[in-house]
């Protein structure tokens, strides 16, 4: 996994957690139904069940549009975009993010959380495409929304994306400063899935920065902390990514036996969720390790499991 792919995969694991639904003080039955479908979609996304996640978000979108509920419509569009992003369909994801931003900006009062989430997701896509000027433009728009909201976690989200741009520019120390500040802000904010995911993201950034600077031991420490937070969140996709990050770092250091442990654990996670692409990628790493060590272990059985059709 190269650095750009690693960066993009990790952020895709977090994308659906940026948008937070806001129901009215006295929600109607239909309001509750829309929020229910959003929760179903979010839970499925954390499990790695992208088909179920998409279905939940599509149903929430249908109900929200029937109610002319622009905030819930924006949430559903942004989180559905995250599903397509994770599946690798960046163009469709971008369309949905832009629709989410537009829905957040309609009406008399803007939905700043939607504006924030949409622009941060688009910034991530721009970084992955090496369009850094466009990424900065989106981050600037997100920062303005975060300032209007005034919350710690919103400010932390902006800082993390600033760190990602700096990381892409190889400005390691500046990237680490932003990521550390973001982690501290999320740690002080009320505990929620968003702050847990944000802290995990910050540790992934710090791990990548330290790996780039040649400090593999410290890098793996941060990847393990990201894994711990992801397990607390019960986000299987994020758990697997943190494990893969540790495995990649150890492989690059020539610690092939240790790397095998992490990739084998990542495979066990990915094999339990509908992410055959990631399970197969883990197998490829295990094959490379077997070539280096001359020890196949249970590679044949793992390969057969990864290639088996879903039940």
Tell me what the structure shows.
This protein is mainly α and 311 residues long. The chain has a domain at 1-150: Alpha Horseshoe (Serine Threonine Protein Phosphatase 5, Tetratricopeptide repeat). It contains 15 helices and no strands. The chain has helices at residues 3-12, 29-47, 50-67, 70-86, 90-105, 112-128, 132-149, 152-168, 172-188, 193-212, 216-233, 236-252, 256-271, 276-293, 299-307. It is globular, with a radius of gyration of 19 Å.
Please supply descriptive tags for the structure shown above.
single chain, 311 residues, mainly alpha, Serine Threonine Protein Phosphatase 5, Tetratricopeptide repeat, 15 helices, 79% helix
List the helices and strands and how they pair.
Blueprint (H helix, E strand, L loop, with lengths): L2 H10 L16 H19 L2 H18 L2 H17 L3 H16 L6 H17 L3 H18 L2 H17 L3 H17 L4 H20 L3 H18 L2 H17 L3 H16 L4 H18 L5 H9 L4
Helix pairs in contact: 1-6, 1-10, 2-3, 2-4, 3-4, 4-5, 4-6, 5-6, 6-7, 6-8, 7-8, 8-9, 8-10, 9-10, 10-11, 10-12, 11-12, 12-13, 13-14, 14-15
């Amino acid at each position: 996994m190269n650095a750009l792919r690693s960066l993009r995969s990790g952020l895709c694991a977090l994308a659906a957690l940026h948008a937070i639904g806001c129901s009215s003080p006295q929600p109607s039955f239909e309001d509750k139904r829309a929020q229910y479908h959003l929760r179903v979609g979010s839970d499925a996304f954390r499990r790695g069940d992208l088909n179920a996640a998409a279905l939940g978000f599509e149903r929430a979108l249908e109900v929200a549009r029937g109610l002319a509920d622009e905030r819930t419509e924006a949430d559903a569009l942004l989180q559905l975009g995250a599903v397509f992003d994770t599946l690798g369909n960046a163009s469709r994801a971008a369309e949905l993010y832009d629709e989410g931003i537009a829905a957040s900006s309609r009406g008399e009062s803007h939905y700043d959380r939607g504006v924030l989430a949409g622009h941060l997701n688009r910034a991530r896509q721009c970084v992955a495409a090496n369009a850094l000027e466009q990424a900065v433009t989106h981050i600037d728009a997100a920062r303005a929304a975060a300032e209007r909201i005034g919350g710690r976690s919103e400010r932390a989200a902006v800082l993390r994306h600033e760190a990602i741009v700096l990381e892409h520019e190889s400005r390691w120390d500046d990237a680490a400063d932003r990521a550390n500040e973001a982690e501290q802000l999320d740690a002080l904010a009320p505990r929620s899935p968003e702050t847990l995911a944000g802290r995990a993201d910050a540790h992934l950034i710090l791990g990548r920065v330290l790996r780039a600077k040649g400090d593999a031991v410290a890098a793996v420490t941060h990847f393990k902390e990201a894994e711990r937070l992801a397990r607390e969140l019960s986000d299987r996709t994020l758990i697997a990514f943190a494990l893969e990050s540790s495995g990649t770092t150890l492989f690059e250091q020539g610690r092939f036996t240790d790397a095998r442990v992490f990739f084998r654990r990542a495979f066990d996670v990915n094999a339990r969720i509908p992410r055959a692409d990631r399970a197969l990628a883990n197998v490829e790493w295990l094959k490379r390790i077997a070539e280096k060590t001359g020890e196949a272990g249970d590679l044949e059985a793992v390969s057969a499991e990864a290639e088996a059709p879903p039940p």
